Amino acid sequence: MNVIDGTKAHSVMVGIHVYSFASIMKINKDFLAHLLERAVANSRLRQNYDLRTSEGDHSQRMLNALLPGTVVPIHRHPQSTENVFLLCGKLVEVVYDNEGNETDRILLAPTAGSYGCVVPQGAWHTVEVLEPSVIFEVKDGRFGEDGSETLDAFMAKEAENKKQASPTTEPFSNSLGDLKKNIEYLIGMERQSGSMEVITPLYVSRMLNVPLEEVEKVMGEIDVR
Hints:
alpha+beta; six-stranded antiparallel beta sheet; about 25% helix; elongated
């Protein structure tokens, strides 16, 4: 049972918990300990507690209990900064660039006087949990409805976009009608790469997987200098 000053009332509305508090909700040591216990029982090694109080609240306001070993995918929020306050424990907020290179590490540890950070809008980030921790995190927009995305999904989309934008090359056809064009194309690519080596029929035969006799016949008809 959640520790909410001895009372609890809630209903489920559009997939979120909407709590009606009969008295002031106390977020104390016992409350955080209970939330961490639920994280232990969770296969993801984390457990959040939604602090929104109405269906019309489109922000993200929650407590998140995290245990060492939990994996939070690198992600970003294009439309909002994210405020992170560590209530207990110790963790590192890690920031990355678009290529997945680490650019910053912020140690959060209340006992060391480091209480939180504000992750810039659009910055890729994750957390490395060093000790059982509970954070209070706030941002605009519900996750999944605000353009938030993981770095893996972003990079896969970028790779697909590059693939679609790249001109497609017709596959080689080594029929007698096309062999001359293919040899001229291969020679042109070799020259474009800066190679000044003599291009022999044997080399072309191996590159195009065509019998040497056919290559010698065609190359005898074209200027390969």
